[in-house]
Specification:
Bacterial SCP orthologue domain-containing protein; 2 domains; single chain; alpha+beta; four-stranded mixed β-sheet; Nonspecific Lipid-transfer Protein, Chain A; SCP_3; 10% strand
Length: 172
């Protein structure tokens, strides 16, 4: 498609859209949009459901780091640890869909979950942040939510920043 044709398509789409219309969403949304969908091509990317987590893949990724979590092995390689964190966070996102709480596990991932008031810009009002080891201990049930908060291993701000009823994500 030529530049002029692409601009014309964008302008037609903008004219047809109801609600917020930001061109920066166009390419991303069109990648995820299924053929035949009748929604605005400029819909918020957050409206697009995340790819479903394969439970076996997530379980295998977390199982690979269990010896480290138990203190029986050295820290796993970065890609192994990243996979376990990302897949378990995505599983949490599927267990509690929503956009009112942001869970951050730097440097690997952040997800928004839990139903409630939707957050769209700036720092969310409900934020949970922790390190990869603490997150995986919480996700596997090796560490209780209250213990993590009391030990300052998790920071949680906001009235909805409580995952105690959603954990563990996976049990071994």
């Amino acid at each position: 498609m030529s530049g002029a044709a692409a601009r014309a398509a964008v302008n037609r789409s903008l004219a047809a859209c109801q609600g917020p219309t930001t061109a920066k969403f166009l390419i991303t949304v069109q990648i995820y949009q299924q053929p035949g969908e009748r929604r605005c091509p400029f819909a918020n990317v957050g409206d697009v459901p995340a790819k479903a987590v394969d439970p076996a893949e997530m379980r295998a990724a977390v199982q690979a780091v269990l010896p480290w979590l138990r203190g029986e092995a050295d820290q796993p390689e970065r890609p192994v640890l990243a996979s376990a964190v990302r897949l378990s966070l995505r599983a949490l996102e599927q267990i509690a869909p929503g956009r009112s709480v942001e869970v951050r596990v730097p440097p690997f991932a952040a997800v928004q979950c839990v139903e409630g008031p939707r957050h769209t810009r700036g720092t969310p009002p409900n934020v949970i942040e922790t390190d990869p080891r603490t997150w995986l201990e919480l996700a596997t049930g090796a560490l209780a939510w209250d213990e993590a908060l009391d030990g300052a291993r998790v920071t949680a701000s906001g009235t909805r920043a409580d995952l105690s009823h959603l954990l563990p994500v996976v049990k071994f």
